[in-house]
């Protein structure tokens, strides 16, 4: 670990207290180890959230190191410390390359992305991310604009709803689910999480209610925030932003994300098809560091049950 001044020590401790109430960082030490941080390097945390991973990166940086931490949710700004080495970027990580260029940065030594939703978002009932409680059906990470979950639920056709529930929620009988919503919204608009849960009752399996609703709310959140498109854009830009030998570390939480990350690290595309040059040599932009995804230990899962679905993969840009 690099040496840092007492000022930095105070700020890190302050930030630690804030971040643990906002979100418990997942696979913290494992992710820092895979980043291979140099004290004077330049790094990106694409998902600042409670600042837990950023705080830990700062501990490894010297006075000349730089960290660019992205988050589109303005609520996270209060977790940012007054530390000149940290540059808080209020932006979706889909704009990674452009945001860095605006700040005079063309290359970085490593990129970390923890794709999980912060505990804060689930616990802040009024944001509409959780099916527990009653709140406006919102689910926007960036509350300054864009469509809400209510817009999706009330404005999408049954066919479109069935598609996102199957693709993003990996649910079965999605036409039945869409029909339940269509029938309910024909009587009155579905504006709250409680109304949506009520509308879904006829097609909610009694033995697996929580699992079913978790997947359905996940699908809506992914659609509202364009999460799959944003992830693809960030991964593609990582190839242009990382220095040769730079590291990409991604923590995902469901199979759709993990498949995209795995394929991209393996082949440089999202289908996982390795292309060959004129001489038949494989064209691979990365060397994969993690042959198998790194997962939380039983001890971490016991401390933080929300980490149980996490999978982390890392690769080095060639």
What does this structure look like?
The chain has 318 residues and is an alpha/beta fold. It has 2 domains: 6-119 and 228-317, Rossmann fold; 132-226, Putative methyltransferase TM0872, insert domain (DNA polymerase, domain 1, Orthogonal Bundle), CATH 1.10.150.170. It has 13 helices and 9 strands. The protein has helices at 6-22, 28-35, 52-60, 96-102, 119-123, 149-155, 158-167, 174-185, 193-199, 209-225, 227-241, 255-267, 298-303, and strands at 42-45, 66-70, 86-89, 108-114, 242-252, 275-276, 282-283, 286-288, 311-317. The strands form 2 sheets. The protein has a 7-stranded mixed sheet with strand order 3-2-1-4-5-9-8, sandwiched between helices. Strand 1, helix 3 and strand 2 (66-70) form a beta-alpha-beta unit. The longest helix has 17 residues, at 6-22. The radius of gyration is 21 Å and the shape is globular. Mean pLDDT is 91; it is low at 1-20.
Structure in a nutshell:
The chain has 318 residues and is α/β, with parallel strands linked by helices.
The average pLDDT score comes to 91
Instruction: Work out the radius of gyration.
Output: 21 Å
- The number of helices is 13
Domain count: 2
Shape: globular
The residue ranges in which pLDDT falls below 50 over 5 or more consecutive positions are 1-20
Helix content: 40-55%
Largest sheet: 7 strands, mixed
